[in-house]
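Comment thread on ticket #2218

A.B. wrote:
> Attaching the input chain for the structure job we discussed in standup.
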Amino acid sequence: MRVIVKIVLSHEVLEKSQFPHFQKEIERLIESGGKILMLDFSKINFLKNSELMAVVAIVKLVRDSECILLISAMSQQVRILFELTGLEQIFQCLPPSEENSLKSDLTEPLGDLQSVAG
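C.D. wrote:
> Ran it. Output below, let me know if you need it in another format.
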């Protein structure tokens, strides 16, 4: 198992119908030795309330484990939302210069959720 696992988020996996499966896959990654989970927001330009709550649920899940949660490729709109809600104090957001150094072969497919990794 890789120490750093990059997860490319999409609106589909944050929807209520897909999120329980997505959450189980994150639990599997943590249990199999993932030490650093990096949520890549490059496919997310905005977040609906339910999607924001899904991201918060991921934070709670990771916080209960020994893992570190990083955020990368956050759009300006999502960054502003995080600032307005105070979430920027909870997340460790990578500056763009550091994101490039972590973009090697780090993406871990999550089960059959094709839209998650890739």
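A.B. wrote:
> Thanks. Noting for the ticket: Strands lie at 4-8, 36-40, 68-72, 92-93.
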